[in-house]
User: Which sequence fits this backbone?
């Protein structure tokens, strides 16, 4: 049914619209057809933060990780993600759920390279990711938090 709907979308010429392509990527990913999701993602002209996050979550859910993302599109989208620190929360949570330490470290490096101060939710997501990956980096990130509010203590595994 999803492929039929996609065929109709192609006929109407709406496939290149950012919202539509994001929904198609999401639909294919939720149906487990990552080949189709990648095909739509690769054709996406806008490659916005939403579409990138949908693609990342789909790949992570299927156990493929972000290494399957087309590098040129990932780089274009990544600049936009760096401008949207809250987007990192979802990405870090996705990597934490599959214990993807290398990918999580890469995101951490991108946060640092962005030059922006991460908020409590981003830092707490880093702590959570490192904790679930059983990395002692978790304690270092937690100790460097400028203030430890309810979010930090709730997500910190040693807070209970």
Assistant:
């Amino acid at each position: 049914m999803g492929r039929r709907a996609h065929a109709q979308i192609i006929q109407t010429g709406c496939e290149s619209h950012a919202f539509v392509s994001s929904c198609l990527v999401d639909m294919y990913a939720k149906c487990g057809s990552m080949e189709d999701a990648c095909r739509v993602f690769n054709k996406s002209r806008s490659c916005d933060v939403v579409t990138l996050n949908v693609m990342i979550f789909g790949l992570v859910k299927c156990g493929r990780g972000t290494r399957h993302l087309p590098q040129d599109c990932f780089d274009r989208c990544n600049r936009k993600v760096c401008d949207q620190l809250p987007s990192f929360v979802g990405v870090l949570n996705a990597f934490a759920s599959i214990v993807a330490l290398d990918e999580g470290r890469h995101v951490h490096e991108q946060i640092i390279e962005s030059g922006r101060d991460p908020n409590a939710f981003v830092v707490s997501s880093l702590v959570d990711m490192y904790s679930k990956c059983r990395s002692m980096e978790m304690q270092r990130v937690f100790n460097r938090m400028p203030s430890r509010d309810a979010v930090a203590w709730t997500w910190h595994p040693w807070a209970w």
Notes: The chain has two domains: 1-64, 84-160. The first helix runs from residue 2 to 12.
